[in-house]
Specification:
The complex is a heterodimer of chains A (130) and B (265). Chain A has 130 residues and is mainly beta. Chain A has a single domain, classed as OB fold (Dihydrolipoamide Acetyltransferase, E2P) (Beta Barrel), CATH 2.40.50.140. Chain A is built from one helix and eight strands. In chain A, a hairpin with a 5-residue loop joins strand 3 and strand 4. The longest helix of chain A has 6 residues. The termini of chain A are far apart. Chain B is globular, with a radius of gyration of 24 Å. Helices cover 26% and strands 24% of the residues of chain B. Chain B has a nine-stranded antiparallel β-sheet with strand order 4-3-2-1-9-8-7-6-5, with no helix packed on it. Chain B contains six helices and nine strands, in the order ααβαααββββββββα. The chains are: A mainly beta (130), B alpha+beta (265). The interface between A and B is large, with 36 and 42 residues.
Chain lengths: 130, 265
């Protein structure tokens, strides 16, 4: 099932990656940390490697075109301390993912840092988040 | 002839035995060194455990640990020039574009004080003559000698020459002999090869470790300054976190550049 992009703008400290959280090898200047959007799509790949784990998600936009979204998470050691594994996501999984979108409108987003992680629901099951 | 051969073998064996004993005696600690070692063991505070970085403090400026005004650290003209040339990924001047952070761009060693800014753990391994600090990030480790002074003319290295001592409940580390290729923190503050670093570790309670770091670098800063960090005991063992240049470059191409390009239509 092709997913759709739904924008749910929420500004609230509890739903954001806390600004004081420690990011790994770079900061957040490329992302809009005041905004959270929700992506509803299909995982095409999950790269469990340094410096950041990356999730590729296929979404169909309002025109019916499929867009490849790249979601950045924390490094593998930090994700595993948050309860994830390299098998938490697999190609073909249906996912609903929260993310801070890129400021320039690119289909990239930031969803995970060392001590904070936005919500991912995979095939109806919630992955650990904080 | 067989009797001669047997006697020769016995003689050779005795020579080997006494040589081994003599070698062991030559490298054995002297009585005074042994006594000092015993005293060291008796008064050593325990820093064992894996320690986790807490809080988001990318800057070592004690008045601005979050790096909101990184230009506020009292730098010399030499340091200001280097600071202005830095394009760090963190803090008020943080950017995704043309970042020249030596760790991100080259996987260069982060430098001692910057290691405490990353969200990875470290551990102190205490032996009578040397303490080793193992850093999870990039797998760096450093020895701190307890039984000598600094060499008169140390080499300039990434992590410097460290000597240490215990002062009651505090472990004091004195380090000189740095090269000037690292940043002291995540927001691009430089240091020179004249940096003299003093770290003080103190365990506040079983689960809390405090680190105080004094930066004395007259070539880069107009006066010394001291920053503090607090770490919490972690049950996570140290794990591999390698800085791979190929992985960094792949991430840069896939994410960093995409997030700084003109929006797609």
């Amino acid at each position: 099932m092709k997913g759709k992009l739904s924008n749910i703008f929420r500004v609230g400290a509890g739903l954001l990656l806390i600004s004081s959280t420690i990011l790994a090898h770079h900061g957040t200047s490329g992302y809009d940390m005041e905004k959270v959007i929700t992506l509803n799509g299909t995982v095409t790949s999950f790269n469990w490697s340094n410096p950041h784990c990356l999730v590729h998600i296929d979404l169909k936009d309002s025109k019916g075109d499929v867009k490849d979204w790249i979601i950045e998470l924390a490094a593998p050691t930090l994700m595993s301390r948050n309860g994830w594994t390299k098998d938490s996501l697999k190609p073909g999984d249906e996912v609903i993912a929260e993310t801070h979108p890129a400021k320039n409108g690119a289909t990239t987003g930031l969803s995970g840092a060392s001590t904070a992680l936005l919500k991912f629901v995979v095939n109806g099951h919630e992955l650990p988040y904080r | 002839m067989p009797k001669c051969k047997a006697k020769l073998n016995i003689l050779l064996s005795m020579i080997a035995l006494f040589s081994s004993a003599a070698h062991a005696q030559t490298n054995a600690p002297t009585p005074s060194a042994k006594k000092q070692e015993a005293q060291n063991v008796a008064r050593v505070p325990d820093f064992s455990g894996s320690w986790a970085v807490t809080g988001g403090a990318p800057s070592w400026d004690p008045s601005d640990p979050r790096g909101t005004k990184p230009e506020g650290l009292p730098m010399t003209p030499w340091a200001v020039e280097r600071f202005k040339a830095a394009r760090p990924p963190f803090g008020a001047n943080g950017t995704f574009e043309a970042v020249n952070d030596p760790v991100q761009k080259y996987c260069d060693p982060p430098g001692i004080t910057r290691l405490y800014n990353y969200p990875w753990n470290f551990a102190l391994i205490q032996t009578p003559r040397v303490v080793y600090i193992l850093y999870e990030f990039t797998g760096l480790w450093r020895p701190i000698a307890l039984d000598r002074e600094h060499p008169k003319n140390p080499d300039s290295t990434w992590l410097g020459d460290s000597i240490g001592r215990y002062e009651s409940d505090t472990f004091v580390i004195d380090t000189i002999g740095f090269n000037d290729k690292t940043w002291i923190d995540q927001v691009g503050h430089p240091h020179s090869d004249a940096l003299h670093l003093v770290e003080r570790f103190r365990r506040l309670d079983h689960e809390t470790l405090e680190l105080s770091v004094t930066f004395d670098d007259p070539k880069a800063y107009t006066k010394p300054f001291t920053g503090k960090r607090v770490f919490k005991l972690s049950f996570a063992p140290l794990e591999e976190t390698v800085c791979s240049l190929s992985e960094m470059q792949s991430f840069d191409d896939e994410v960093m550049k995409t997030t700084t390009q003109t929006p797609r239509k």
